[in-house]
Design a protein that fits this description.
Radius of gyration: 16 Å
Structural class: mainly alpha
Helix content: 55-70%
Shape: globular
Number of helices: 9
Number of strands: 0
Strand content: under 5%
Largest sheet: none
Length: 162
């Protein structure tokens, strides 16, 4: 495959999965790290890794993994900086933010307070990924995914009652 064919295929893949990339980035965006910067970093990392993609997993699983790793790595690099995110910044990332109810906004606010791995797991769960897909994307075992999801749900319920 020549370079122009590779570029066309890559651009098509990114356009087809743009919502996935934005959603992952929105969970890690902050005042210090705007959504647009994270999105650009993810797309750059996808492009760098694309020629090495072997098809051992689905494209969406591979993209989730790259996006999550990029966002988490970026967070770790900037860990020493104070980090806060206004919910209004997150709304820009959603396709139809006007459709969000107050309960959904509150859920996203609570999710944003979770640790990085917890946030990644609940994001994938909300995207209706199977436990196996979540395990493949995060690198956790299937049983570890189940345990972590149960604990995350309990934590979110506890946070919402405070």
């Amino acid at each position: 495959m020549d370079k122009s064919e590779l570029e066309k295929k890559f651009i098509g893949m990114v356009k087809q999965n743009e919502r996935v990339i934005y959603k992952v980035c929105s969970f890690y965006a902050s005042d210090d790290e705007p959504l647009s910067n994270l999105y650009q970093d993810v797309v750059c990392n996808l492009w760098l890794a694309y020629p090495k993609f072997r098809g051992e997993s689905s494209i969406s699983t591979w993209m989730y993994r790259i996006a999550l790793n990029t966002c988490i790595s970026n967070f770790r690099k900037k860990k020493h900086l104070p980090r806060s995110t206004d919910l209004s910044n997150l709304q820009d990332a959603f396709i139809q933010p006007e459709d969000m109810t107050g309960e959904i906004k509150e859920m996203y606010r609570l999710i944003h307070q979770l640790k990085n791995l917890e946030r990644a797991i609940i994001l994938l769960y909300l995207e209706e990924k199977s436990y196996q897909e979540i395990a493949d994307i995060t690198g956790l075992s299937l049983s570890n995914v189940a345990v972590k999801l149960k604990r995350i749900k309990e934590k979110l319920v506890k946070m919402s009652n405070q």
